[in-house]
Structure formats: structure tokens, C-alpha cells
From TrEMBL:
InterPro entries: 6-PGluconate_DH-like_C_sf, NAD(P)-bd_dom_sf, P5C_Rdtase_cat_N, P5CR-like_CS, P5CR_dimer, Pyrroline-COOH_reductase. Belongs to the pyrroline-5-carboxylate reductase family. It comes from the Bacteria. This is Pyrroline-5-carboxylate reductase. SUPFAM superfamilies: 6-phosphogluconate dehydrogenase C-terminal domain-like, NAD(P)-binding Rossmann-fold domains. The keyword NADP applies. Signal peptide: none annotated. PROSITE patterns: P5CR (PS00521). GO terms for cellular component: cytoplasm. Residues 159-263 form the Pyrroline-5-carboxylate reductase dimerisation domain. NADP(+) binds at residues 6-11, 67-70. It is found in: Cytoplasm. The gene is proC. GO terms for biological process: L-proline biosynthetic process.
């Protein structure tokens, strides 16, 4: 399978890194980006083919992944439209609805909208997928092959669910990193070196995530198992509850979903 990425930024580089790790050859991946630095760095890291602009050579792939910012997608789609024949188009852009993108592509319907996340780079991605009704079973499998190569996938029946996927797992790694930053800052304040603070924090996240993944018990039960009566965890969690942290996280994720819908509404007017 030959894949062209249009846009070679953060998310494209995470997906390409994951694909290469899974055995995809750099030579079968093309990247089109307007930034020469991005192209040089991707070529140096993964030996992918690079193009400064989209032309018939770069669009001749089996799969075209649209990996530019949502606000850049309309312009890219207009350039791509005349080059489309039977390639499967996969969009990873937040907010942009499949029917709007299809309209920008001159009515092209072989289109799967997805929402991956950056852990794809280490084969631990989580991707939501939604296919237009015209997408064939073979094309759905093709899309799943690309995204399953870099992690887990979830097909959505309703495109509106994509706003929630974006808010939970698309943006989610950033929430986890934010929590990690706070834990590392606390560990440093409590006397550890930055390296020690990183190890303590990372191993705790990895261990807790593995435990949760392998356990039959839900997160609340696992949390209760750490929380001894009158102990240290109880004091920490009480402090977090008093500060309304859980409610804030829930509110933040709702805000992200609203932003995804807003992007879709605004760009849908173009
Ligand atoms: N980052 C993430 O965790 C995730 C991002 N996404 C989605 O992925 C998409 C890309 O995000 P991200 O990688 O973070 O963004 P980046 O800005 O890092 O990458 C986009 C790249 O596309 C380039 N570009 C702009 N216009 C063109 C063009 N006409 N032709 C080719 N390349 C172009 C940009 O250049 P320049 O910077 O000069 O404009 C930039 O290098 C977005 O739509 C986002 O919603 C989805 C899931 C997760
Ligand atoms: O922040 C964003 O808009 C993109 C979509 C999900 C993660 N990053």
C-alpha cells in the first residue's frame, strides 16, 4: 500500500513513525508539506519521499491522508480534487465534517474521517473512524489497516460522535501530559532531581495504566485500593476534590467537544 500524507506536522509524523515501526517502508510513503524543514526532518528520520507541493506523482497513492490544520483543509482539498481517481482519502482534521470535505473535494465520496492521537508514534494510538456511506467494505478495511498499524480503532456509527472522540482520546494525551507535568513539578519540589522525578512519574503512569488495562475492576475500585483510611492518598484526593479537579476535567472535556463542533459549524459555512 502506498500512502501520501498532505501535511507533515506533529500528527503526520506520529503516524509515519508508527507505520515505519510496524514495517511500512519509507519508500512507500510520500509527504507533501509547505515547510522544507518538516520535509527534511521526516526524510532524515524515515527516508520517506518528500514533495514541496501536491502533484500527480504524490497523489498517485492508494491512500491519501489529509493531515493539515482544519483551517488549511479547504485550500488543500481544492488542489487535490482534480487529482482524485479512486484513492481512499482519510482525513484526520479535527472538526471538519465528512460531507463538507467531500463538497470541497468536488463531491468525491471515497472518504473516511478519523481522529487519531499522538501515541500512534509508539504503536499505542487510539483512533475513531467514520466512513461516508459510499465507502466500500474493502476501503473501510484499508483505512482500518492504516490506523490499526499504529494502535486501536473504534468505528463510529454516527459522525456526531467524532466530537466526543476528539475531546476524549484525540486531545486526551495532552491532559495526561499536563497531569504528568504537575506530578514531576511536585516531585522536584519534594527534593528529587528532574530525572528522578521523571522516572517516578512515568513509571507510576505506566504501571497504573497497565494495571487498569489488565484488571477486571473499574478505575474507582482501583483508586479505592490505593486509598488507606486516614492515610496519604486520602489526604491528596481530598485536596483534589476540594479544588474541584474531577469536575474541572469533565468540564474541560465537554469544552473540547464543543470546540470540535464549533470548528465543524464554522468550516461548514466555507
Ligand atoms: N496533534 C494532534 O495530537 C492531533 C492532530 N489532529 C489533526 O491533525 C491535523 C494536523 O495537526 P498537527 O499535525 O498538530 O498540525 P501541524 O501544524 O503540526 O501540521 C500541519 C502541517 O501541514 C502544513 N501545511 C499547511 N498547508 C499545507 C499545504 N497546503 N500543503 C501541505 N502542507 C501544508 C503545515 O505547515 P505550516 O505550519 O507552515 O502551516 C504543517 O507543517 C489537524 O487537522 C488536527 O486537527 C488529529 C489528531 C491529533
Ligand atoms: O488540538 C487539536 O485541535 C487537535 C485535535 C485533537 C488533538 N489535537
Amino acid at each position: 500500500m502506498n500512502i501520501t500524507f498532505i501535511g507533515g506536522g506533529n500528527m503526520a509524523s506520529a503516524l509515519i513513525g508508527g507505520l515505519i515501526k510496524q514495517g511500512f517502508k519509507g519508500a512507500s510513503i510520500c509527504v507533501v508539506d509547505i515547510s522544507p524543514e518538516n520535509l527534511q526532518s521526516l526524510h532524515a528520520r524515515y527516508q520517506v519521499q518528500t514533495f514541496a507541493e501536491l502533484g500527480s506523482a504524490s497523489a498517485a497513492s492508494d491512500v491519501i491522508v489529509l493531515a493539515v490544520k482544519p483551517q488549511q483543509l479547504h485550500g488543500v482539498a481544492a488542489t487535490l480534487a482534480p487529482l482524485l481517481q479512486q484513492q481512499l482519502v482519510i482525513s484526520i482534521a479535527a472538526g471538519v465534517r465528512a460531507n463538507d470535505l467531500s463538497r470541497w473535494l468536488g463531491g468525491y465520496r471515497q472518504l473516511v474521517r478519523t481522529m487519531p492521537n499522538t501515541p500512534a508514534m509508539v504503536s499505542s494510538g487510539m483512533t475513531g473512524l467514520y466512513a461516508l456511506p459510499e465507502v466500500t467494505t474493502a476501503q473501510r478495511e484499508q483505512a482500518a489497516t492504516v490506523l490499526q498499524a499504529v494502535g486501536s480503532t473504534l468505528w463510529l456509527e454516527e459522525e456526531s460522535q467524532m466530537d466526543a472522540v476528539t475531546a476524549v482520546s484525540g486531545s486526551g494525551p495532552a491532559y495526561v501530559f499536563y497531569f504528568m507535568e504537575a506530578m514531576q513539578a511536585a516531585a522536584t519540589e519534594l527534593g528529587f532531581s528532574p530525572q528522578q522525578a521523571r522516572t517516578l512519574t512515568l513509571e507510576t503512569f505506566l504501571g497504573a495504566a497497565r494495571l487498569a488495562a489488565q484488571s477486571d475492576e473499574d478505575a474507582a475500585t482501583l483508586r479505592a485500593r490505593v486509598t488507606s483510611k486516614g492515610g496519604t492518598t486520602e489526604r491528596a484526593l481530598g485536596t483534589m476534590e476540594d479544588a474541584g479537579i474531577k469536575a474541572s476535567i469533565v468540564q474541560a472535556i465537554h469544552a473540547a467537544a464543543v470546540r470540535s463542533r464549533e470548528l465543524g459549524d464554522a468550516l461548514g459555512k466555507e
